[in-house]
Every structure is written in C-alpha cells, then in structure tokens.
Amino acid sequence: MTNPVIESPRSGRVAPEYTRTGASKGNFEMVAWLFMRVSGIILVVLIFVHLWTSLIDGDGIKGVDFGFVAGKWASPIWQIWDLVMLWLAMLHGTNGVRTIINDYAEKDSTRFWLKSVLYASTVVIIVLGTLVIFTFDPCPVIDGVAHVAPYCPAP
User: Fold this and answer.
1) How far is CA 66 from CA 16, 28, 56, 63, in A?
2) At the top level of CATH, which class does the domain 28-137 belong to?
3) DSSP 3-state assignment of 141?
4) d(CA 141, CA 139)
5) What transmembrane ranges does the database entry give (predicted)?
6) Model confidence over 99-139: pLDDT tens digits?
C-alpha cells in the first residue's frame, strides 16, 4: 500500500471549482468581515449605554413609556444615538444573514431571492426607523388639544 501524495497547501494548484472568476475578485468580503468586527464593538457600547440610561439609571422597565421616549428623543443627541444604533444593528445583522445565505443556499436562484428579500426588508426597516426617529412628535396635538408634558415647550 502506497501513501498518497498530499500537495503543499501553497503549491498553487487549485481545483477548478474553487478558482476565482474576474467578477469575484476584490475586497468586498474583507471589508464586510472588517465591518462586522468594528460595528460589533461600536454596537456593544451603543447598546450598553442605551440599556443603562433606559433601565438602570431610570425606573427600570416600568419607567419606559411614551413620556420616557418622548423626553429622550427631545434631545438631538439621543435621536442620533438611536439612529446610529438602528443603522449599525440592521447593517450588521444583514451582513451576517447574507453570509449565512451564501454558505447554505446551494442554488444561485435561491441565493438571489433570499438576498433580495433580505435587502428589501433591510431598506424598509431602516427607512421606517429613520422616519420614526426624526418625525416623532413628543408634544402631539390630538383633536385640537395639546398634550403638554414637562419636556414640551410652552405653547
């Protein structure tokens, strides 16, 4: 019995099914990998500060209501904070699911449709979330009656 010859991993011989085509060359996957690491670190900070200000520093979960959110979003700093958290979380999650689809969807057509649904839902959630953050009226007027709260300017 002879031992099979195992080529050196760096011998330069690559099976045809693993060769890169001209369309697949580039740095996209490396940039996506780097984005996951950087956005993950930033998200940890954003989320823990969010949880601290919402739960620990306040009245706990029972204190999170319309007034709490309205008071928080009356400040542009918290609007931007939540916007960055929304965008990073959605893009981070989308990139992760894109990787899973690439790994497990065997047919090109399945991969195409799964990623199309993923990207469409990501755009919808980012657009709706951004609209909610910037069009949220903390001092609403309902049926001609201004609902004044301590964080609202005087009418």
Assistant:
1) 59, 41, 18, 9
2) mainly alpha
3) strand
4) 7
5) 30-53, 73-91, 112-136
6) 999 999 989 999 999 999 999 999 999 999 999 999 988 77
Task: Give first-to-last CA distance, the chain, whole Å.
Answer: 93
CA distances from residue 5 to 2, 8, 104 in whole angstroms, order as listed: 9, 9, 31
% of the chain residues with pLDDT over 70: 81
Residue 56 neighbours by CB distance under 10 Å: 9
pLDDT digits (tens, 9 = 90+) for 73-104: 888 999 999 999 999 999 999 999 999 999 99
Question: Degrees (nearest 5) of the Cα angle 121, 39, 18?
Answer: 75
What is the rounded distance in angstroms from the CA atom of residue 111 to the CA atom of residue 104? 9
Decide if 43 contacts 85 (C-beta within 8 A). yes
- Token pair, residue 48, equals 């823990």
Instruction: Provide the residue ranges of all domains of the chain, joining segments of one domain with +.
Output: 28-137
Residues 6 or more apart whose CB falls under 8 angstroms from that of 97 comprise: 118
Beta-bridge partner residues of 146:
141
